[in-house]
Amino acid sequence: MISKKPNGAVIYPPDCSKPAEPLVIKGGRVIDPANRIDDTLAVAIKDGRIAAVSREVPKEFDKAKVIDAKGRWVVPGLMDMHVHLREPGREDKETIETGTQAAAAGGFTAVACMPNTNPVLDEEAKIRYVIQRGEGCASRVFPIGAITKGSEGEELAPMGEMVRVGARAVSDDGKAVAKSGIMRNALNYSKSFSIPVICHCEDTGLSQKGNMNEGVVSTRMGVRGIPAIAEEIGVARDLLLAEYTGARIHIAHVSTAGSVRMIREAKARGVNVTAETCPHYFTLIDADIGMYDTNKKMNPPLRTAHDRQAVIEGLSDGTIDVIASDHAPHVSEEKDVEFDAAAFGVAGLETSLGVVLTFLVDKNLLMPADVVEKMSLNPNKILGLPGGTLTVGKAADITIIDLKASWIVDSRHFFSKARNTAFEGFPLKGYACCTILDGRVVFERLS
Ligand SMILES: [Zn+2]
C-alpha cells in the first residue's frame, strides 16, 4: 500500500509482479568510489539493473522515464548495517515492514538487522523467517544471527546453519559475550564461514546499572554512570582475541576516544578489524541530555566532547569504516518515564543521512566519497554483499540525495513506528529525495 506523510514523503512498496520499467537518472553528480567515479553523468537502468553510467544517455533509452537529478548526488543505495527491527516479538515497537519503510525514507536500500528479537534469531528457521518477511519490503533485509543461543553467552548458536540460509554475520548485540572462552570459540568457528563477528563491547561489571556516561555531568545530575573503560576493556579484549585467532571482527557503535585509539593501533599491526560509529556519537555529548531527556539515552551512552572529537577523527582518518544508526525503536511508554527507568536506544534510520550531511559533510569533516564508502560500500563489503557500487550489471539500488534541502526533524512524519529520536527539532541540511530498489522508485519526496 502506498503510504504518504503530510510533508510529501511517499513510500511505494515495490510491485515485483511487474518487470521494472526502463529508467534514466540525468544530470546528477554520480559518486561511486568503488569505480572511482565522481562526475556529472547519466545512469540508465533496465530490467532492474544498471545498464549504463555515461555522459550521453544510450539511444535505446530515448523513451524511458527520466528523473532529473540536477544539483543532486546520485549514489549507490545506502546500507545501514546495524538496526533493530523488533520483529518477531515486539511488533508494537517496529515491524520489518515499517522498519524498511523508515529505511527507504532515510535513503537506505538495505539494512542488516540484529538478532535480539523475541525469540532471539539463533537458528536457521528464525533467520529464514526474517528473510521471508523482508521480501517485497521497501529495502533489502539481511539478518544477523546470534553468537550464542538466546544471546545468553553460554552456548554457541548453530552458526553454519544460519549462514547457509542467509545470515551475513553473527552478534549478541545488546549484550557483550562475557566469557572470553566462548568468544574465542565463536571467533575460531566464524573463520570457516568467512563471516565477521560483530562485537558489542561492554564489561558489564563496570557498566552495571549505569544510565549515562560516567563523568562530571553524571555526578551533577545524580545519575549512575557507565565509564568509558567499560567499553574500552571490551574493545581491548575483542581486538586481542581477533589477533590471537586471526578471525574477522567488526566493532559496533564505537563511542570513546580510547576505543578509536585501540582500533587504530590494531589496524596498524594488521588485526582483521573494522568498526562503526553512530550519528549521535559524532554530534551529541553527555551534557546534551539536559533535563534528563530519555531520547538521548542509549548504550553505549553519549560521551564527552573529547570522545566526540576522537570519533570524528576516527571517521576522517579511516579508523572507523562505517556509519550505522543502531536504530532502536521503542514505544513511548518505555521513554516517557524517569531517566533511570527509560529504555536504552534511539530511532535513527530517518535522520542518519541528514545528520551526516549537516554535521560532517557541510563542515568539511568528511568528503562526499567518504560518505558513500561509510554508508554503502564498506558495510556491503564487510557483510560480503554485492551492493555499494553502480557497476554496470549490478542491481539498480540507488539513492538520490538533495544536499540543499533544509528541514527540521519532526518524528510525527517518521515511517518508523517509533518517535524516540535524539534529534527532534534539529534543523538539518540534506536528505534522500528518492530511493530506488531494483530499478523501482520505492521512496520519493513530492513538493
Ligand atoms: Zn550494541
Fill in the keyword field for this structure.
binds zinc ion; alpha/beta; TIM Barrel; Urease, subunit C, domain 1; 10-stranded mixed sheet; 447 residues; single chain
Structure notes:
The chain is α/β, with parallel strands linked by helices. It folds into two domains: 3-74 and 393-404 and 428-445, Roll (Urease, subunit C, domain 1), CATH 2.30.40.10; 76-382, TIM Barrel (Alpha-Beta Barrel). It contains eleven helices and 20 strands. The chain has helices spanning 96-105, 124-134, 159-164, 180-191, 204-207, 216-221, 228-245, 257-268, 305-316, 352-361, 368-382, and strands at residues 3-4, 9-11, 23-32, 37-46, 49-54, 65-68, 73-76, 78-83, 108-113, 140-143, 170-171, 197-199, 212-213, 225-226, 249-251, 273-277, 322-323, 398-408, 427-437, 440-445. The strands form four sheets. Strands 1, 2, 3, 4, 5, 6, 7, 18, 19 and 20 form a ten-stranded mixed β-sheet that branches. It has a five-stranded parallel β-sheet with strand order 11-12-15-16-17. The radius of gyration is 21 Å and the shape is globular. The relative contact order is 0.17. The model has no long low-confidence stretch (mean pLDDT 97). The structure holds zinc ion. Zinc ion (ZN) binds next to loops. Residues 173-174, 200, 252-253 line the site of zinc ion.
Secondary-structure topology with pairs:
Blueprint (H helix, E strand, L loop, with lengths): L2 E2 L4 E3 L11 E10 L4 E10 L2 E6 L10 E4 L4 E4 L1 E6 L12 H10 L2 E6 L10 H11 L5 E4 L15 H6 L5 E2 L8 H12 L5 E3 L4 H4 L4 E2 L2 H6 L3 E2 L1 H18 L3 E3 L5 H12 L4 E5 L27 H12 L5 E2 L28 H10 L6 H15 L15 E11 L18 E11 L2 E6 L2
Parallel strand pairs: 3-6, 3-7, 8-9, 9-10, 11-12, 12-15, 13-14, 15-16, 16-17
Antiparallel strand pairs: 1-2, 2-20, 3-4, 4-5, 7-18, 18-19, 19-20
Zinc ion binds next to loops.
